[in-house]
Amino acid sequence: MTDTQAVTAAARVPEGWPTTEAAALAVQDELRALLVLDREGPPPGEGRVTGVDVAYDDARGVVAAAAVTLDAATLAVTGRAVAVGPVAFPYVPGLLAFREVPAVLAALEALPGPPGLVVCDGYGLAHPRRFGLACHVGVLTGLPTVGVAKNPFVLAADPPGPRRGDHAPLRLGEEEVGRALRTRAGVKPVFVSAGHLVSLDNACAHTLALTPRYRLPETTRHADALCRRALKEALAGRPATTTD
DNA sequence: GCGACAG
DNA sequence: ATCTTGTCGC
């Protein structure tokens, strides 16, 4: 219907972006102080929700990010944008954000309208240092964010019940920093945590509102399909690692 | 000391 | 994340 053509932007690694693990850890410590966790966040089913995801070609050092905005009530696509650029950091468990954030921000900025709540593909607070990708994106954009990961990370969770909506806590000490949430009956759960300006309860409510049919949120599904297509198209222009 | 480890 | 065929099911 009103599905816009995806706007394509060029992403680049910002000046002063961390190049070592030690520098990245220091940035996490610095940004973590800016997290806002005492807000309920926007209610599910209203306004807009934007999913972000990235695809890589590590051999060529290229990353493509996609941001897809949906009407929260109907889940219809209202805006799409992609950003292609250089990979900003190697993959290090716990430092994923340094790899994806530059391209993700470029895609979000290229959207035709306000993103609303941002759903990230990965963890938020349920992170060894309580500052996963969703927190990072939230602090840098000022937008409410949640993290929905497909696989368990460093925090173990008991298996949730078998029905849609059943969940089990992800604990960091005594604190519940995330949940293994069953979005489809009898199907492997997803791992939800708050990123910025959202409560864990609300993050789970949004996740359920976005999964009327599949295990993963509609936002993530759309963004995943778009960034893969964008990466392919961006690579089609250049055959391979040429002699430059 | 040796693995495991979001994407 | 990515490399990969066929196959079972709606």
From TrEMBL:
<keyword id="KW-0378">Hydrolase</keyword>
<keyword id="KW-0227">DNA damage</keyword>
<dbReference type="Pfam" id="PF04493">
    <property type="entry name" value="Endonuclease_5"/>
</dbReference>
<comment type="similarity">
    <text>Belongs to the endonuclease V family.</text>
</comment>
<feature type="binding site">
    <location>
        <position position="53"/>
    </location>
    <ligand>
        <name>Mg(2+)</name>
    </ligand>
</feature>
<comment type="function">
    <text>DNA repair enzyme involved in the repair of deaminated bases. Selectively cleaves double-stranded DNA at the second phosphodiester bond 3' to a deoxyinosine leaving behind the intact lesion on the nicked DNA.</text>
</comment>
<keyword id="KW-0234">DNA repair</keyword>
<keyword id="KW-0963">Cytoplasm</keyword>
<protein>
    <recommendedName>
        <fullName>Endonuclease V</fullName>
        <ecNumber>3.1.21.7</ecNumber>
    </recommendedName>
</protein>
<keyword id="KW-0479">Metal-binding</keyword>
<keyword id="KW-0460">Magnesium</keyword>
<dbReference type="GO" id="GO:0004519">
    <property type="term" value="F:endonuclease activity"/>
</dbReference>
<dbReference type="InterPro" id="IPR007581">
    <property type="entry name" value="Endonuclease-V"/>
</dbReference>
<keyword id="KW-0540">Nuclease</keyword>
<feature type="site" description="Interaction with target DNA">
    <location>
        <position position="91"/>
    </location>
</feature>
<feature type="binding site">
    <location>
        <position position="121"/>
    </location>
    <ligand>
        <name>Mg(2+)</name>
    </ligand>
</feature>
<keyword id="KW-0255">Endonuclease</keyword>
